[in-house]
Amino acid sequence: MIISSPKFFKKESKLPKGVKKIYAFQGCLEELFFINNPRWKKGMSEARRPLAEFIKSNNDQGLWVYYPWSNVAVHIVREDLYFKLRTTRNRNLITSKEQNRYRQMKVGIAGLSVGSGIVSALVISGGPKTIKIADFDVVEVSNLNRIRARLEDMGGSKVQVVAQQIWELDPFADVYIWDKGITKENFKKFITGDPCLDVFIDEMDSLDLKILARIICREKGIPVIMATDNGDTVILDVERFDLESQRQLFHGLAGNLGLNNCKNMTREKWLRLSTKIIGSGFMTLELQNSILQIGASLGGVPQLGTTASVAGAAVSFVIRRIANGYKMPSGRYIISLEQNIIPGYNNRREVKNRLYKTRSFKKKLGL
């Protein structure tokens, strides 16, 4: 599949005929003036003359970004100024130095249902310019509760939809598209091929590929991040293979795993191994009940778009810390809306009730 990236033009006259034009250049210059001169605000009479002088003194004519899939061209300032504008409201929550280090990261994401929310969080926060995305699937209506797509995207490649969303916000991004998805044969190239990843983000369903990813990343010293939907809770796993070359896969929760564990994988075996990796004690009761219904009343593991959004924020935060060399140890981190919002969620009676039901769940699953 050939997916067109944005095209850049220096002159308006060179744009394709019939293109819709959006003139954002003047607005960009005005914003830059007020960013550089915070003592003035838009609408202040005393700012009119210096603003006019600033615009008149500008020698840069910017560039036109042409999006072939929508036949739209936008006139904006050059890349460094555009990035400054787009990230100015991050300051000083993210310093300029932190932002630049975050921007320089090279990340790869496999699995674009929940992964699309992670991509969105990375891009909107001014994160990695270099992104590899992989998914073999197309957008279906049932994806629309969590994937950032439109009805008109139905039947289109997930990687195409996500790539276009990246470029529509960050036209200068270097997006590497793997529309055939990940296989055992090409996985190493996805992770270590030019450009080699700084971080791998795992949002895949395939257990054998999850294991293989960690084997490759551990060998090459590349950290792995995985965000798992768990009802209204996110289970965030950080595996710092860049710091711990002998670390067990999945924190050792499922024992000493290897690819042999995935041979002759039935649905029941997949559910049991997945539950070991996630940890039944971490699962919400709603997710436990849902897992028991897979193959009966449910076709797959249920996921919420709101939880996917939380997952995106959490993953982008971790990558920012890794990029800047801040303390970000391996481990499992729980971001729970239930625990932090529902009154009495962690009182003795509720905890005891969840423990009892979790034991029953494990017994039914044969664990």
From TrEMBL:
<dbReference type="GO" id="GO:0008641">
    <property type="term" value="F:ubiquitin-like modifier activating enzyme activity"/>
</dbReference>
<feature type="domain" description="THIF-type NAD/FAD binding fold">
    <location>
        <begin position="89"/>
        <end position="279"/>
    </location>
</feature>
<dbReference type="GO" id="GO:0061504">
    <property type="term" value="P:cyclic threonylcarbamoyladenosine biosynthetic process"/>
</dbReference>
<dbReference type="Pfam" id="PF00899">
    <property type="entry name" value="ThiF"/>
</dbReference>
<dbReference type="InterPro" id="IPR035985">
    <property type="entry name" value="Ubiquitin-activating_enz"/>
</dbReference>
<dbReference type="InterPro" id="IPR045886">
    <property type="entry name" value="ThiF/MoeB/HesA"/>
</dbReference>
<dbReference type="GO" id="GO:0061503">
    <property type="term" value="F:tRNA threonylcarbamoyladenosine dehydratase"/>
</dbReference>
<protein>
    <recommendedName>
        <fullName>THIF-type NAD/FAD binding fold domain-containing protein</fullName>
    </recommendedName>
</protein>
<dbReference type="InterPro" id="IPR000594">
    <property type="entry name" value="ThiF_NAD_FAD-bd"/>
</dbReference>
